[in-house]
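Figure 3 (text version): structure tokens given as input.
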């Protein structure tokens, strides 16, 4: 009799143990599922930070290029990482970052080549384009203006104007159809959109836009004695 009671108790305890294990597994699954979104968000943030750092390094290389050559590099239009020019002008003001000419990283954190646009007056071989006085061997002068504009949305408010050059990454979702604001960055004109990251359906935006500040370029050229 006692043995039968002990067997029933053991079976009952074993049953409760299985239920408890099941509950624990469900809780663990829920916890892991809840952690996936923050983890992916952290990875995305890390890649965006890495990409921004690479763009900043590319601009440092461009500043150095300007000091040595008296002009900004032209975009890469052939896909080999070298700048392309024809007759003293850029083959196109839009293209890829000429990473081989600059000896910088050839792709962003998602493995895609950076896009690059330059104002031709800053990259041509005509001295002091757009100004009354010119400095020999320098494509631009202190009074030169870039033709690139940066807005906070397509058709939105102005963030920056008279920009000489811009570098951008299309981010993680470069393969999907661009949102309305992202489309402004790929239509090969001189207007770009820079805004906060968004993953909201229909208004996604993960482009990283970084532009050259004219005053920084002028200051470096003056300090190096390339401009008066």
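Below: residues designed for each position.
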């Amino acid at each position: 009799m006692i043995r039968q009671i002990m067997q029933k108790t053991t079976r009952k305890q074993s049953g409760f143990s299985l239920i408890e294990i099941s509950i624990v597994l469900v809780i663990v699954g829920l916890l892991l599922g809840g952690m996936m979104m923050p983890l992916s968000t952290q990875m995305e943030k890390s890649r965006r930070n890495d990409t921004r750092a690479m763009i900043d390094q590319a601009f440092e290389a461009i500043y150095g290029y300007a000091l040595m050559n008296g002009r900004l590099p032209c975009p890469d239009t052939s896909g080999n990482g070298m700048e392309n020019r024809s007759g003293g002008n850029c083959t196109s003001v839009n293209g890829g970052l000429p990473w081989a000419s600059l000896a910088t990283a050839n792709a962003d954190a998602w493995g895609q080549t950076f896009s690059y646009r330059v104002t031709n007056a800053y990259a041509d071989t005509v001295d002091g384009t757009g100004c009354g006085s010119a400095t020999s061997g320098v494509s631009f002068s202190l009074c030169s203006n870039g033709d690139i504009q940066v807005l906070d949305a397509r058709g939105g408010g102005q963030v920056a104007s008279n920009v000489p050059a811009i570098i951008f990454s299309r981010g993680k979702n470069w393969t999907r159809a661009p949102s309305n604001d992202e489309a402004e960055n790929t239509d090969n004109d001189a207007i770009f959109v820079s805004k906060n990251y968004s993953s909201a359906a229909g208004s996604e935006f993960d482009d990283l836009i970084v532009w050259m500040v004219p005053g920084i370029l002028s200051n470096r050229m003056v300090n190096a004695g390339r401009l008066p």
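The chain has five helices and nine strands.
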